[in-house]
Amino acid sequence: MTSDPYGDRGNKDRSITDPDGAGTLEAHPGTGQPMNTDNAFLIGDTMTGGYGNGPDILHDCTIAVNQGEIAVIVGPNGAGKSTAMKAVFGMLNVRQGSVRLDGEDITGLSPQARVIKGMGFVPQTQNIFTTMTVEENLEMGAFIRRDDFADTMAQVYDLFPILKEKRYQAAGELSGGQRQQVAVGRALMTQPKVLMLDEPTAGVSPIVMDELFDRIIEVARTGIPILMVEQNARQALEIADKGYVLVQGRNAFSGTGKELLADPEVRKSFLGG
Ligand SMILES: Nc1ncnc2c1ncn2[C@@H]1O[C@H](COP(=O)(O)OP(=O)(O)O)[C@@H](O)[C@H]1O
Ligand SMILES: [Mg+2]
Predict the structure, then answer these.
(1) Considering every ligand atom, which ligand is closest to the CA of 79?
(2) Which of 2-16, 33-47, 94-108 holds the top average pLDDT?
(3) Which of ligand 1's atoms lies nearest the C-alpha of 76?
(4) d(CA 165, ligand 2 centre) in Å
(5) Domains defined along the chain, listed by start
(6) Is pTM, for the whole model, over 0.70?
(7) 122-150 pLDDT, tens per residue?
(8) 220 in Cβ contact with 69 (< 8 Å)
(9) Is 131 close to ligand 1, i.e. is its CB under 6 Å away?
(10) Is there a contact between 200 and 228 (Cβ–Cβ < 8 Å)?
(11) Does residue 248's CB lie within 6 angstroms of at least one atom of ligand 1?
Protein backbone atom coordinates (compact mmCIF):
# COMPACT_ATOMS: atom_id res chain seq x y z
CA MET A 1 0.00 0.00 0.00
CA THR A 2 1.58 3.24 -1.10
CA SER A 3 -0.31 5.52 1.23
CA ASP A 4 0.50 3.66 4.45
CA PRO A 5 1.49 6.55 6.73
CA TYR A 6 4.07 4.42 8.55
CA GLY A 7 5.42 2.46 5.61
CA ASP A 8 7.22 5.26 3.83
CA ARG A 9 10.84 5.57 4.82
CA GLY A 10 11.23 9.13 3.74
CA ASN A 11 12.36 10.98 0.71
CA LYS A 12 14.36 8.74 -1.56
CA ASP A 13 15.31 11.45 -4.02
CA ARG A 14 18.93 12.07 -3.14
CA SER A 15 19.20 14.70 -5.87
CA ILE A 16 17.42 17.31 -3.79
CA THR A 17 19.76 16.92 -0.85
CA ASP A 18 23.38 17.85 -0.81
CA PRO A 19 25.30 15.72 1.67
CA ASP A 20 28.26 18.08 1.49
CA GLY A 21 26.26 21.24 1.61
CA ALA A 22 25.59 21.71 5.30
CA GLY A 23 28.91 23.32 6.17
CA THR A 24 31.02 22.78 9.23
CA LEU A 25 29.36 24.95 11.78
CA GLU A 26 30.66 24.44 15.27
CA ALA A 27 28.59 24.56 18.36
CA HIS A 28 29.54 27.44 20.61
CA PRO A 29 28.86 28.38 24.22
CA GLY A 30 25.29 29.33 24.93
CA THR A 31 23.03 27.77 22.38
CA GLY A 32 25.70 25.26 21.41
CA GLN A 33 25.68 23.50 24.76
CA PRO A 34 23.61 20.37 25.19
CA MET A 35 20.30 21.20 26.73
CA ASN A 36 19.16 19.85 30.04
CA THR A 37 16.80 17.09 29.02
CA ASP A 38 16.23 15.57 32.48
CA ASN A 39 12.54 16.47 32.34
CA ALA A 40 11.92 15.29 28.82
CA PHE A 41 8.61 13.52 28.29
CA LEU A 42 9.84 12.12 24.99
CA ILE A 43 13.51 11.98 24.11
CA GLY A 44 15.68 10.51 21.39
CA ASP A 45 18.89 10.59 23.39
CA THR A 46 22.30 10.74 21.67
CA MET A 47 21.03 8.65 18.77
CA THR A 48 23.45 7.28 16.20
CA GLY A 49 22.15 5.30 13.26
CA GLY A 50 21.08 5.17 9.65
CA TYR A 51 18.89 3.29 7.20
CA GLY A 52 19.31 -0.47 7.04
CA ASN A 53 22.97 -1.28 6.68
CA GLY A 54 23.74 2.12 5.20
CA PRO A 55 26.00 4.75 6.72
CA ASP A 56 25.07 6.55 9.90
CA ILE A 57 22.91 9.57 9.21
CA LEU A 58 22.50 10.58 12.86
CA HIS A 59 25.53 11.17 15.07
CA ASP A 60 24.87 11.51 18.80
CA CYS A 61 21.70 13.34 17.90
CA THR A 62 19.37 14.36 20.70
CA ILE A 63 15.85 15.71 20.30
CA ALA A 64 13.37 15.96 23.13
CA VAL A 65 10.18 17.57 24.31
CA ASN A 66 8.96 18.32 27.82
CA GLN A 67 5.45 17.95 29.12
CA GLY A 68 3.37 20.99 28.18
CA GLU A 69 5.86 22.28 25.62
CA ILE A 70 6.41 22.65 21.90
CA ALA A 71 9.88 21.66 20.67
CA VAL A 72 10.94 22.54 17.14
CA ILE A 73 13.67 20.99 15.01
CA VAL A 74 15.11 23.09 12.21
CA GLY A 75 18.10 22.80 9.92
CA PRO A 76 19.07 22.62 6.28
CA ASN A 77 17.65 20.19 3.76
CA GLY A 78 19.13 16.74 4.25
CA ALA A 79 20.32 17.51 7.80
CA GLY A 80 18.58 14.43 9.15
CA LYS A 81 15.52 16.05 10.71
CA SER A 82 13.08 13.51 9.28
CA THR A 83 15.55 10.74 10.03
CA ALA A 84 15.71 11.82 13.68
CA MET A 85 11.90 11.81 13.86
CA LYS A 86 11.74 8.36 12.29
CA ALA A 87 14.37 7.15 14.76
CA VAL A 88 12.25 8.38 17.66
CA PHE A 89 9.23 6.64 16.13
CA GLY A 90 11.07 3.34 15.75
CA MET A 91 11.53 3.29 11.98
CA LEU A 92 15.32 3.25 12.04
CA ASN A 93 18.15 1.19 13.45
CA VAL A 94 19.36 3.20 16.40
CA ARG A 95 22.82 1.71 16.85
CA GLN A 96 23.66 3.85 19.84
CA GLY A 97 21.56 5.94 22.14
CA SER A 98 18.04 5.41 23.32
CA VAL A 99 14.47 6.59 23.03
CA ARG A 100 12.49 7.16 26.20
CA LEU A 101 8.84 8.00 26.68
CA ASP A 102 7.73 9.23 30.08
CA GLY A 103 10.85 7.69 31.61
CA GLU A 104 10.42 4.31 29.96
CA ASP A 105 13.04 2.98 27.55
CA ILE A 106 11.16 2.20 24.32
CA THR A 107 14.19 1.86 22.05
CA GLY A 108 13.29 -1.70 21.12
CA LEU A 109 9.61 -1.16 20.37
CA SER A 110 7.99 -1.22 16.92
CA PRO A 111 6.24 1.92 15.66
CA GLN A 112 2.86 0.24 16.28
CA ALA A 113 3.81 -0.50 19.88
CA ARG A 114 4.88 3.12 20.29
CA VAL A 115 1.48 4.30 19.07
CA ILE A 116 -0.12 2.10 21.71
CA LYS A 117 2.24 3.67 24.29
CA GLY A 118 0.89 7.09 23.30
CA MET A 119 2.97 8.42 20.44
CA GLY A 120 1.26 10.14 17.52
CA PHE A 121 3.34 10.71 14.39
CA VAL A 122 2.57 12.68 11.26
CA PRO A 123 5.28 11.87 8.71
CA GLN A 124 6.54 14.43 6.21
CA THR A 125 5.19 12.64 3.14
CA GLN A 126 2.27 10.37 2.35
CA ASN A 127 0.62 11.16 5.62
CA ILE A 128 -2.99 10.67 4.47
CA PHE A 129 -4.94 8.08 2.48
CA THR A 130 -5.81 10.18 -0.55
CA THR A 131 -8.50 7.91 -2.00
CA MET A 132 -10.38 7.64 1.27
CA THR A 133 -12.74 10.26 2.58
CA VAL A 134 -11.71 12.65 5.31
CA GLU A 135 -13.82 10.74 7.80
CA GLU A 136 -12.38 7.38 6.75
CA ASN A 137 -8.90 8.81 7.30
CA LEU A 138 -9.89 9.75 10.83
CA GLU A 139 -11.39 6.30 11.38
CA MET A 140 -8.15 4.73 10.16
CA GLY A 141 -6.35 6.90 12.69
CA ALA A 142 -8.34 5.22 15.43
CA PHE A 143 -7.15 1.78 14.38
CA ILE A 144 -5.76 0.84 17.77
CA ARG A 145 -8.90 1.78 19.64
CA ARG A 146 -11.53 -0.69 20.72
CA ASP A 147 -13.66 1.92 22.49
CA ASP A 148 -16.07 4.44 21.05
CA PHE A 149 -14.05 7.18 19.35
CA ALA A 150 -17.00 9.39 18.32
CA ASP A 151 -16.08 12.00 20.94
CA THR A 152 -12.51 12.22 19.69
CA MET A 153 -13.75 12.65 16.14
CA ALA A 154 -16.04 15.44 17.32
CA GLN A 155 -13.03 17.09 18.99
CA VAL A 156 -11.03 16.85 15.77
CA TYR A 157 -13.92 18.42 13.87
CA ASP A 158 -14.10 21.20 16.49
CA LEU A 159 -10.40 21.85 16.03
CA PHE A 160 -10.61 21.71 12.21
CA PRO A 161 -14.17 22.73 11.23
CA ILE A 162 -13.37 22.55 7.50
CA LEU A 163 -12.80 18.81 7.89
CA LYS A 164 -16.33 18.35 9.17
CA GLU A 165 -17.63 20.24 6.16
CA LYS A 166 -15.61 18.00 3.84
CA ARG A 167 -15.91 14.77 5.76
CA TYR A 168 -17.39 12.78 2.87
CA GLN A 169 -14.90 14.11 0.30
CA ALA A 170 -11.83 12.18 -0.78
CA ALA A 171 -8.89 13.53 1.20
CA GLY A 172 -6.87 13.76 -2.02
CA GLU A 173 -9.23 16.48 -3.30
CA LEU A 174 -8.40 18.82 -0.43
CA SER A 175 -5.94 21.73 -0.46
CA GLY A 176 -2.46 21.29 0.99
CA GLY A 177 -3.34 22.97 4.27
CA GLN A 178 -6.53 20.93 4.61
CA ARG A 179 -4.65 17.69 3.94
CA GLN A 180 -2.25 18.57 6.75
CA GLN A 181 -5.26 19.06 8.99
CA VAL A 182 -6.44 15.58 8.02
CA ALA A 183 -3.00 14.19 8.84
CA VAL A 184 -2.87 15.89 12.24
CA GLY A 185 -6.48 14.92 12.92
CA ARG A 186 -5.73 11.32 12.05
CA ALA A 187 -2.86 11.28 14.55
CA LEU A 188 -5.07 12.80 17.23
CA MET A 189 -7.60 9.97 16.86
CA THR A 190 -5.44 7.68 19.03
CA GLN A 191 -5.57 10.29 21.82
CA PRO A 192 -1.77 10.49 21.87
CA LYS A 193 0.21 11.59 24.91
CA VAL A 194 2.72 13.27 22.61
CA LEU A 195 2.49 14.38 19.00
CA MET A 196 5.32 14.36 16.47
CA LEU A 197 4.85 16.46 13.32
CA ASP A 198 7.28 16.47 10.41
CA GLU A 199 6.89 19.73 8.46
CA PRO A 200 3.18 20.24 9.06
CA THR A 201 3.20 23.50 7.10
CA ALA A 202 5.14 22.30 4.05
CA GLY A 203 3.91 23.87 0.84
CA VAL A 204 1.18 26.06 2.29
CA SER A 205 0.74 29.83 2.04
CA PRO A 206 1.87 32.09 4.92
CA ILE A 207 -1.74 32.64 5.97
CA VAL A 208 -2.46 28.93 6.09
CA MET A 209 0.83 28.40 7.91
CA ASP A 210 -0.24 30.86 10.62
CA GLU A 211 -3.57 29.09 10.94
CA LEU A 212 -1.91 25.69 11.23
CA PHE A 213 0.48 27.00 13.88
CA ASP A 214 -2.50 28.39 15.80
CA ARG A 215 -4.17 24.97 15.72
CA ILE A 216 -0.93 23.29 16.79
CA ILE A 217 -0.65 25.67 19.75
CA GLU A 218 -4.25 24.82 20.59
CA VAL A 219 -3.41 21.11 20.59
CA ALA A 220 -0.40 21.77 22.84
CA ARG A 221 -2.66 23.68 25.24
CA THR A 222 -4.86 20.60 25.61
CA GLY A 223 -1.83 19.02 27.27
CA ILE A 224 -0.21 17.21 24.34
CA PRO A 225 3.49 18.05 24.03
CA ILE A 226 4.57 18.57 20.43
CA LEU A 227 7.86 17.65 18.78
CA MET A 228 7.88 19.23 15.35
CA VAL A 229 10.18 19.64 12.37
CA GLU A 230 9.72 22.91 10.52
CA GLN A 231 11.24 24.51 7.47
CA ASN A 232 9.59 27.82 8.37
CA ALA A 233 12.30 28.15 10.97
CA ARG A 234 11.75 31.68 12.20
CA GLN A 235 7.99 31.38 12.61
CA ALA A 236 8.32 27.97 14.22
CA LEU A 237 10.94 29.12 16.72
CA GLU A 238 8.64 31.97 17.66
CA ILE A 239 6.11 29.47 18.98
CA ALA A 240 8.69 27.01 20.31
CA ASP A 241 9.58 26.49 23.95
CA LYS A 242 12.70 24.61 22.86
CA GLY A 243 14.51 24.48 19.57
CA TYR A 244 17.12 22.25 17.98
CA VAL A 245 19.22 23.08 14.95
CA LEU A 246 20.47 19.92 13.27
CA VAL A 247 23.33 19.95 10.78
CA GLN A 248 24.62 16.79 9.13
CA GLY A 249 22.91 14.57 11.64
CA ARG A 250 24.34 16.36 14.65
CA ASN A 251 23.05 18.89 17.15
CA ALA A 252 24.55 22.20 16.06
CA PHE A 253 22.58 24.53 18.30
CA SER A 254 19.90 24.15 20.90
CA GLY A 255 18.14 26.42 23.32
CA THR A 256 14.84 28.07 23.95
CA GLY A 257 13.09 29.38 20.85
CA LYS A 258 13.94 32.91 22.00
CA GLU A 259 17.63 32.10 22.50
CA LEU A 260 17.94 30.61 19.03
CA LEU A 261 16.12 33.54 17.43
CA ALA A 262 18.53 35.91 19.17
CA ASP A 263 21.70 33.96 18.38
CA PRO A 264 23.68 35.83 15.70
CA GLU A 265 25.20 32.62 14.30
CA VAL A 266 21.84 30.87 14.07
CA ARG A 267 20.28 33.95 12.51
CA LYS A 268 23.00 34.30 9.92
CA SER A 269 23.15 30.64 8.94
CA PHE A 270 19.60 29.40 9.33
CA LEU A 271 17.18 32.29 9.59
CA GLY A 272 18.31 34.44 6.68
CA GLY A 273 20.07 37.09 8.82
N1 LIG B 1 14.91 5.99 3.18
C2 LIG B 1 16.19 6.43 3.13
N3 LIG B 1 17.20 5.58 2.82
C4 LIG B 1 18.47 6.00 2.78
N5 LIG B 1 18.86 7.27 3.03
C6 LIG B 1 17.90 8.15 3.33
C7 LIG B 1 16.52 7.79 3.40
N8 LIG B 1 15.80 8.88 3.72
C9 LIG B 1 16.70 9.88 3.87
N10 LIG B 1 17.95 9.45 3.63
C11 LIG B 1 19.18 10.26 3.70
O12 LIG B 1 19.34 10.72 5.02
C13 LIG B 1 19.87 12.05 5.02
C14 LIG B 1 18.95 12.92 5.85
O15 LIG B 1 17.69 13.00 5.21
P16 LIG B 1 16.41 13.56 5.95
O17 LIG B 1 16.35 13.02 7.31
O18 LIG B 1 15.25 13.31 5.05
O19 LIG B 1 16.76 15.12 6.01
P20 LIG B 1 15.82 16.37 6.36
O21 LIG B 1 14.52 15.85 6.85
O22 LIG B 1 16.58 17.14 7.39
O23 LIG B 1 15.70 17.16 5.08
C24 LIG B 1 19.98 12.48 3.56
O25 LIG B 1 21.31 12.29 3.16
C26 LIG B 1 19.05 11.52 2.85
O27 LIG B 1 19.48 11.28 1.54
MG1 LIG C 1 12.59 16.08 6.19
Answers:
(1) 1
(2) 94-108
(3) 22
(4) 31
(5) 39-270 (3.40.50.300)
(6) yes
(7) 999 999 999 999 999 999 999 899 999 99
(8) yes
(9) no
(10) yes
(11) no
